[in-house]
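dude i think i finally got it to work??
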Amino acid sequence: MSSTRTHISPLKRFKITTTFFLSILLITLFVPKVYSQVYVLNGGFEFSETVPNESGQWELINSWTNAGSTIANPDYYHTFGYNGGDLPETPLAYIQPYNGYAIAGLEVSRRSGTNMREYLMGEFSEALVVGKRYEFSFAVANGDVYEHSSAGLGVSDLGVTFSTEELVQTERDPISTQPQFSMNHIQYYQGWKVIKFAFTADKQFKYFTFGMFGADIDKQIQTFEGPGRSKAYYFVDDFAIRDLTSELQENDIPYRGDTSDLFNLETSTFVPTAFSPNNDGVNDVFMPSLRPNRGAMLRIYDRRGAMIWESSEEQPKWSGNSMLGGEARPGLYLWTLKVVIEDGSIDELSGPVTLLQ
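look at this
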């Protein structure tokens, strides 16, 4: 069989070759830069050996540990779990996942003086780079706690410790290390709250541990759901980390290092779900904790929709009295809150509150 070879002139061959190399050059110049991005392994708890079928099955979660304790048992919950491992009806509170199908939960503390802890320890995909700036974030909630649940305490000093090696907890004792990040005020959220903070790595951190570090003596532990509560129980989800330094360099923004040692954590609004105006010194007043503002209006309504109380000040509160005279009866009430923030924006919130005897 004969074949015919097509003849290409030297000039045409030069044009084809030039076009090819120009195309490669253009691709090289205009394809976005790709850099290695660190991330949290299984930060949303979506990957596991199987779905949980009871409480305390933290060991099912891939890439997470309980900080090496032999007896502390954080919990794993999944939408398709069962017998105490399912969502949204956990044994302690009702809660939907913040993202995806799974979350974790842990008893960060018990009543003051017991010094009992649980921790969750996660891992980064690679060691952090010393001198780089990162943003760390996670979602936290206490859920809609049941009336007869042992949960319902809120605590201060929830924190995150970064480490180059895995931390080890002895039984249920507090880990005494000083966390790089700690929230000094009491945190208690019925719904999910996303916490973010920025930091500069001063070591090649590979692990992070979430919980309450140190002894109870300098911590605030308070009940938010009425008497008889014994556990400060928190649900967590969606742990994540961002390499801020690489992102700044990627966008040709000069990085000038730290300008402050303060964490980038915005003061938030917290509204309790119950109070007991019995003059025992514990939760006697229903008072939302507000960010700095120009003024706020709090209104309380009974089940029939009648307004029984109104308070207008920077930190409004309700002591259980009625504008009609006397004290309001124990039961469920509806509150509305309008807050004028310092920048002029307005927050409008509403929800239920239970007046306990």
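The radius of gyration is 27 Å.
im so relieved honestly
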